[in-house]
Amino acid sequence: MTEIEYPTTRESSCPFAPAATVREMTRDNPVGKVRIWDGSTPWFITRHADQRALLNDPRLSIDEKRAGYPHMTRARAASAPHHPQLITNTDPPEHTRLRRTVNAPFMVKRVEAQRPRIQEVLDDLIDDMLDGPRPADLVQAIGLPVPTLVITEILGAPYQDHELFQHTSHVLISHESTPEEAAKAGQAIGAYLSELLDRKTAEPGDDVVSEMAARVVAGEMTRPEAITMANAILIAGHETSASMISLGTLALLRNPDQLALLRDNSDDPKFVANAVEELLRYLTIVHSGIRRIADADIELHGTVIRAGDGVIFDLAAANWDDAEFPEADRLDLRRPARRHHAFGYGVHQCLGQSLARVELQVAYGTLYRRIPTLALAVPFEEVPFAMEGVAYGLKSLPVTW
Amino acid sequence: MRIEFDEPKCVAAGQCAMVAPGVFDQRDDDGVAIVLDATPGPERFDEVREAAAVCPAAAIRLVEA
Lengths: 401, 65
Fold this sequence. Notes:
heterodimer; A: about 400 residues; CATH 1.10.630.10; six-stranded mixed β-sheet; three-stranded antiparallel β-sheet; globular; B: about 60 residues; alpha+beta; Alpha-Beta Plaits; two-stranded antiparallel sheet; 2 helices; iron (chain A); oxidoreductase (chain A); metal-binding (chain A)
């Protein structure tokens, strides 16, 4: 049997849908295999119910240092042995301890407190865009600057350094970067954050790097852990939210009835919150699979995953699994979508998900209300998608109003 | 309905506090969940069931009468 090459590319005729070959596996071959960059063939799990069961199964490990771990890219495989213990490469109970040390800034209450500031940031950006020429590029005008401003404020970094952040996070999550490019970008941002940590140790502010600096001084966290964690926050919070704002807008412009529904219900926080969940489900921008390695034999639908085998979970496939989300290919802002896997599932579920939700609720709740005539400035077929990263998105989104 | 919360498993994602805010909260220093009302009234059953369903660590178990 020939395995499909993974990650697969979404078809350009249907850029919001997971690849047809992946959807076929969800239907016909729930415990299949795919071939990845190094020629290995990890197991491939695409059904929602199977992902829910396995992503909470202690027999699966996220220890990326183990032989046979199905790395995302050559660059990741090369850097994995050098990573300190992180929330992204440890299992419970060590993982639980680490996650609790970095979790405070992302608590629901703390991110809710940021909502007025995020609203202000967005309103200013919309004012600027409306004052500028038409057409405008929504990626540059709104999509990227919103998460950049939010994340730099949360970290306590000056906004004028945002070009370094944007460049670095792009290089580090792109599948097209060479290990050398990734290493260079990683060193540059590491040096920057190390210096920021020093500054915040001397002059603490009300921000995450200052909090981590205090933990380093108190001996609760090592310096490399703090720098790696700050780096992870910066990268994870960047292009992901940017992609969701831009792609979500494009998906809504393609579904004018849904856009009208959202616009008319912009003042209903519950409606907007559910719309965010549905767009997260529908788009599932982290589309290159989350990875684990089996610690013990695991039987699933009559097939045995052996100890030491790699396992990949395609989150987009689970979010388009008709057994969980009937007519999954339809964007329906009223459907109950809260159980989607766009942030993953299990103990490693996205640390920044509450912040992402607030950013997206503010963005989707404001953009179309303030710009009711928002429209594409080019034919849909000419909108350039960026498919090559860990998360997918748009290179630009020309809009007019 | 009675809520059984397995605290050592909690990864402090805060989803329960978001979905059922009157029933769950998060501890200030590390975000670990707190059960405010272990025997919620029937008007809250839907949101509590949803909170248990979305808990990424499966740390919330419901004993339904």
